[in-house]
Amino acid sequence: MISVGALSMTSCSKSNNNSTPSAPADTVYYSNWVAVNTTFNVADSAWEQDIAASTITANALAKDVLLSYIQYQGFVYSAGDFGVYPAYKVGDVNLLSGVGQISTAAGVMFRYVIIPGNKLVTSSNPSVKSATPAQLKDLPYSTVAKMYNLPN
Known about the structure:
By secondary structure, the chain is mainly β.
């Protein structure tokens, strides 16, 4: 498997951006967009990529909502809808490609978002008045991005 350098994480809340380690517990974190470059794992017989993700903690896995997206040719898809399936574990995201090899040259990018699982989210977006963390999984990236002021 190929390991990409650590993702730098950025955090935001509805009112500001804050990337300090002392960010409040209700802060939404999002990774930078990272190039997808899968390699063939003989042991698994699958195209995979490991991405270091220090902000994925045991607490985040147990309590928070993790969303994953693929950006390709100007569009953003849920990772699973694109055929890339992330497996999260403490400190790491393993991407499994269901569409075969994806090289850096293809321009496919990956991002994950960690949303605290302990609160109801309200939005200024008129199409979404509020959403529980579980409901966020069904929202398109454009709506989630507007709710949390995520950059493209």
